[in-house]
Amino acid sequence: MAPEPKRVLITGAAGQIGYALAPLVARGAALGPDQPVILHLLDIEPAKQALEGVRMELVDSAYPLLAGVVATTDVNEAFNGIDVAILVGGFPRKAGMERKDVMSKNVSIYKAQAAALEKHGSKNAKILVVANPANTNALILKENAPSIPAENITAMTRLDHNRALGQLSERTGTHVGKVRNAIIWGNHSSTQYPDVNHATVDGKPAREVVKDDAYLDGEFITTVQQRGAAIIKARGLSSALSAASSACDHIRDWVLGTPEGTFVSMGVLSDGSYGAPKDVIFSFPVTTKDGKWSIVQGLDIDERSAQLLKTTGDELVEEKALAQECLADL
Ligand code: NAD
Ligand code: LMR
Predict the structure, then answer these.
(1) Residues classed as catalytic
(2) For residue 236, how far is its CA from the centre of ligand 2 (angstroms)?
(3) Which superkingdom is the protein from (predicted)?
(4) Which ligand 2 atom minimizes the distance to the CA of 243?
(5) Is residue 218 domain-shared with residue 94, that is, in the same domain?
(6) What is the span of the domain harbouring residue 261?
(7) How many structural domains comprise the chain?
(8) Last residue of a domain, one of 86, 120, 155
(9) What is the ipTM, given to two decimal places?
(10) Same domain, yes or no, for 52 and 92?
(11) Is 43 labelled as part of a ligand binding site?
(12) Which atom of ligand 2 sits closest to the CA of residue 99?
């Protein structure tokens, strides 16, 4: 017998990531090929008509796993009874902007949505924040939804993680499925630290296979850090299909578990591991089992890496203060 459907909320569902994400979730990319889903799609009043168009297309696609669609501009209805939420709603960065520049518009949305989550969401709901500044939006959500366990609120750095795997795959001519355990530390921003010191390519240390430390310590890092901006420059719009796909990877691994010997990057509440600042949402290497993540412990961190972790941690502390200032000014 098929399991009961799970309710999956996508906010910003009429936007470009939403349009790529809803069909993936409806095909089982987030919760697996045997799990029926009811999609809750939230957007704001000006996007109501476009949202209805998305709902119509989902119905027209006749997905076997799709057990229903709730398309709404009512935040309380959207959060009601959800099992999973992928929070994409917000204002994207445009060319020339840093993610910080979208701060004041977006953190206020996350404060308001925290109230709906607190009131209507299941306490066990798994929440992924995609909208930028993703780590700090997730922190604001956590701080304003105190009854939701902090471990249930995460931010997306899986796209950066996948970008790192993609770069190593292209550089070495190895299929991306054989590249593992790159790490994104810190913020989903240009200060993130994409770390290859524990990565493997076809089972061998990435540094041994790439044989070019100058590239790995230089161009590789900046390419991953700047990939979001490069996509904006190329498309005139921020990444969407890769963001949607990575959001499904994040949820799938969280719910169904990471394969043995593999870790992935997730923005989670920092406990100070590896010298990261506490009480910010910091991207760490994690493994997942039985629906719970744990930070991979005991990795060697050289002096240079420690410095790069500090830079991105400092930015998150700064962003937290800025977000609190923006909210105080409302
Ligand atoms: P978009 O503008 O195409 O769509 C955003 C949607 O959110 C719009 O339909 C808008 O009406 C809606 N929205 C605005 N305020 C809302 C609210 N209060 N409640 C519900 N919906 C609301 O943008 P997009 O390209 O889909 O990007 C969405 C967000 O994701 C942006 O913040 C972008 O920067 C971010 N992003 C993050 C990552 C990541 O890796 N973490 C990757 C790509 C994009
Ligand atoms: C990305 O990394 O593609 C997104 O966060 C969009 C952006 O603003 O860079």
Answers:
(1) 188
(2) 12
(3) Eukaryota
(4) 3
(5) no
(6) 157-318
(7) 2
(8) 155
(9) 0.98
(10) yes
(11) yes
(12) 8
Q: Is the residue at 193 inside a domain?
A: yes
Instruction: Tell how far the Cα of 51 is from the centroid of ligand 2, in angstroms.
Output: 23
Name the residue at shortest CA distance from atom 10 of ligand 1: 12
Same domain, 34 and 50: yes
> Which residue's CA is the closest to the ligand 2 atom numbered 3?
228
Give the pLDDT confidence of 179-215 residue by residue, as tens digits: 999 999 999 999 999 999 999 999 999 999 999 999 9
Task: Compute and round to an integer the Cα radius of gyration of the chain.
Answer: 19
Q: How high is the pLDDT of residue 1?
A: 75
Residue whose CB lies within 8 A of the most ligand 1 atoms, among 77, 132, 192, for a mutation test = 132
Place of tokens 């949202």: 51
Among 326, 244, 254, 250, CA closest to 290: 254
CATH, residue 62: 3.40.50.720
Residues 194 and 278 placed together within one structural domain of the fold: yes
Residues 6+ away with beta carbon under 8 Å from 240: 16, 17, 19, 20
Model-level pTM? 0.97
CATH code for the domain of 172? 3.90.110.10
Determine if the peptide bond prior to 64 is cis (ω within 30°): no
Distance 110 CA to ligand 1 centre (A): 12
Pocket of ligand 2 (CB under 6 A): 93, 99, 132, 159, 228-229, 231, 238-239
* Per-residue pLDDT band at 34 (split at 50, 70, 90): very high
Q: Is 192 annotated as a binding residue?
A: no
Asked which of 127, 155, 183 is the last residue of a domain, the reply is: 155
Angle at 245 between CA 240 and CA 249, to 5 degrees: 145
